[in-house]
């Protein structure tokens, strides 16, 4: 079962901001290179793009910034 409350599923604009990119980053990358996205990691619902953490890690090469712990 898919948990829609999971923080690993997010709006593309939100995801772009979390990873430190412009709001249209996910859409631009998808339009130019859809093969970079793992199967089932991005989908458009009406006008809304939804992506997974897996997709963002694949296209940016960076782990989820929300899960990185800072050393003090």
Could you describe the 3D structure shown?
This protein is an alpha+beta fold. It has one domain (9-64). Helices cover 32% and strands 17% of the residues. A 3-stranded antiparallel β-sheet has the order 1-3-2. The protein is globular, with a radius of gyration of 12 Å. It starts with 8 loop residues before the first strand and ends in a 12-residue tail after the last helix.
Assign a percent range to the helix content: 25-40%
Helix count from the secondary structure assignment:
3
Mean pLDDT: 93
Question: What Rg do the Cα atoms give?
Answer: 12 Å
Task: Report the count of strand segments.
Answer: 3
Count of discrete structural domains: 1
Domain Helix-turn-helix: 7-63
InterPro entries: HTH_59_Firmicutes_type
Pfam family, one: HTH_59
Protein name: Helix-turn-helix domain-containing protein
Q: Keywords, please?
A:
single chain; 72 residues; alpha+beta; 3-stranded antiparallel β-sheet; 3 helices; globular
